[in-house]
Amino acid sequence: SYDWVKARSLLGDHLGRTTQNLEKARLLLEEALLVRPSYAEARLYLGFYHQNIGDHARAELEYRRVFETARNVRNRAHAAVQLGVLQHERGELSSAVRCFRWV
Fold it and tell me: pTM above 0.70?
């Protein structure tokens, strides 16, 4: 039921304002995850997107999912660092330290 042709225009357009580019990136990442839900790199970048717009709860959800499910240890480590950063920003220092120590 997904219209794949609709997403094609995302690649042909020129670069616009930052907010437009971020929205394009989000749509492409979500499309990649529709095709391959376990695509850790796309999920990490989606976490960065949410962190950038200030939705830290959603960012943490994406990072945690990568940390718990990724097979590649580098992806898991990247997710752990980002989780630690978010926890540190909230003042949850012991949780942040656990993430950083895991790395």
Answer: yes
